[in-house]
């Protein structure tokens, strides 16, 4: 069973392999996505280490001069996706978008390095990637934390990777729709429109893109100019975990300056995450920087925070919180609290389960000693695959496979879980 599942997952990854990078899935997402690639490299590393390194190298070959790593790289033209390069108009030789995505590459590179069978190759690749990843981390603090709080803001929901989370609803009300150029969505012809973000949300996504474009994609201006500035605990946890992992990696490669700077960023950020904790919800919450208030939305962002080396007491509380969530759904971990009125079981990030998020939560909880909940999450991942194949995401009550099928990072997570974790049958 296990080997069969791994073989099926490998076939999915090979199908989406374009040589130097993978697409998340054919049709719906025909380019290279930032955090998809970093997480997918973990899967490749189990059966083709050089290919794993290539995935991340290709990503960083398109890093901007200021340090930003873009969220999509449009390697080949494909008019099946909107918004394409002409809408972003970032003026790059190989077009990219002008926003970023969760910085999970630092974590991925360290993990692939630690497990590498070909150590010489790993040292060579990690040494070259180290300053690039570090520059990206520094870019975040310079451009997305202008007040030096230790935490960074996202300025577009797509940066979070959780496109239409309930977390953004209130802040999104302040994003106008006037002046949005007419457009035709393409996502709704590849996936069920009932499960996708709404047209209203799409107008606001595009309004922000047009706004940033009008500022020439100058990152020194975008944060302050954006009406949408959210400090997402999940996003920040990924950044802090990657900074901490990069510190360890840099240390083992003798790069003490990068190690010290990375450690300092991680420590400051983790301390600052305390300001996002909610006793009432037993989890972290988003902070809306433009109005200076926490967002009262119990989504998975505040649970994903367990991926960072947070205090033990917080990890324990998050474990308890997940047990409460388990009472209102069949599979863990729903992207929004099933008892909240906004919960929508099959609509993208407003309820469904995403395996990559599950993986990061369970990894953090395991490290914190919360192994029972971590094991339950991993077991649920495999149950979902058994029922629904390698889908983009799944319903937390009925295990419905949703979104695109034969999805790269879902397959990568299955290989990772089956190859590395002790998953009780
Ligand atoms: C969607 C997801 C995002 C992902 C992308 C490609 O936009 O919300 O997290 O990176 O698809 O899979």
From TrEMBL:
GO biological process: oligosaccharide metabolic process; protein N-linked glycosylation
Gene Ontology MF, one: Glc3Man9GlcNAc2 oligosaccharide glucosidase activity
Hydrolase as UniProt keyword: yes
Source domain of life: Bacteria
Alphabetized Pfam families for the sequence: MGH1-like_GH
UniProt KW keywords: Glycosidase, Hydrolase
Family membership: Belongs to the glycosyl hydrolase 63 family.
PANTHER family tied to this protein: MANNOSYL-OLIGOSACCHARIDE GLUCOSIDASE
Protein's recorded name: Mannosylglycerate hydrolase MGH1-like glycoside hydrolase domain-containing protein
The species this protein was found in: Meridianimarinicoccus aquatilis
């Amino acid at each position: 069973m296990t080997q069969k599942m791994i073989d099926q997952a490998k076939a999915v990854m090979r199908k989406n392999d374009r040589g130097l990078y993978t697409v998340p899935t054919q049709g719906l997402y025909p380019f290279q996505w930032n955090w998809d690639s970093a997480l997918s490299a973990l899967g490749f590393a189990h059966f083709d280490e050089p290919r794993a390194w290539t995935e991340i190298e290709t990503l960083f070959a398109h890093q901007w001069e200021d340090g930003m790593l873009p969220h999509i790289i449009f390697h080949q033209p494909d008019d099946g996706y909107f918004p394409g390069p002409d809408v972003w108009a970032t003026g790059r030789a190989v077009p990219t978008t002008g926003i970023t995505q969760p910085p999970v590459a630092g974590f991925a590179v360290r993990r692939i390095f630690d497990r590498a069978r070909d150590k010489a190759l790993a040292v060579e690749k990690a040494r070259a990637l180290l300053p690039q990843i570090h520059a990206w981390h520094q870019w975040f603090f310079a451009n997305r934390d202008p007040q030096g709080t230790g935490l960074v803001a996202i300025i577009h929901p797509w940066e979070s990777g959780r496109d239409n989370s309930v977390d953004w609803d209130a802040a999104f009300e302040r994003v106008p729709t006037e002046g949005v150029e007419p457009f035709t969505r393409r996502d709704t012809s590849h996936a069920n429109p009932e499960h996708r973000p709404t047209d209203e949300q799409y107008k606001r996504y595009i309004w922000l893109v047009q706004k940033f474009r009008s500022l020439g994609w100058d990152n020194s201006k975008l944060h302050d100019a954006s009406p949408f500035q959210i400090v997402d605990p999940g996003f920040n946890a990924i950044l802090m975990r990657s900074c901490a992992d990069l510190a360890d990696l840099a240390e083992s490669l003798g790069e003490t300056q990068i190690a010290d700077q990375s450690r300092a960023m991680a420590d400051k950020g983790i301390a600052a995450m305390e300001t996002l904790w909610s006793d009432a919800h037993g989890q972290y919450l988003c902070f809306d920087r433009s109005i200076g208030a926490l967002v009262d939305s119990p989504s998975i962002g505040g649970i994903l925070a367990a991926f960072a080396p947070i205090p033990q007491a917080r990890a324990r509380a998050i474990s308890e919180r997940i047990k409460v969530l388990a009472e209102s759904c069949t599979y863990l971990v729903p992207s929004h609290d099933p008892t909240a009125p906004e919960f929508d079981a099959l609509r993208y990030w407003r309820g469904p389960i995403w395996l990559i998020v599950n993986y990061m939560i369970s990894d953090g909880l395991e490290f914190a000693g919360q192994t029972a909940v971590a094991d339950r999450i991993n077991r649920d991942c495999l149950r979902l695959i058994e029922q629904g194949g390698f889908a983009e995401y799944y319903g937390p009550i009925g295990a419905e496979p949703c979104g695109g099928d034969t999805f790269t990072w879902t397959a990568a997570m299955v290989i990772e879980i089956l190859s590395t974790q002790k998953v009780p049958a």
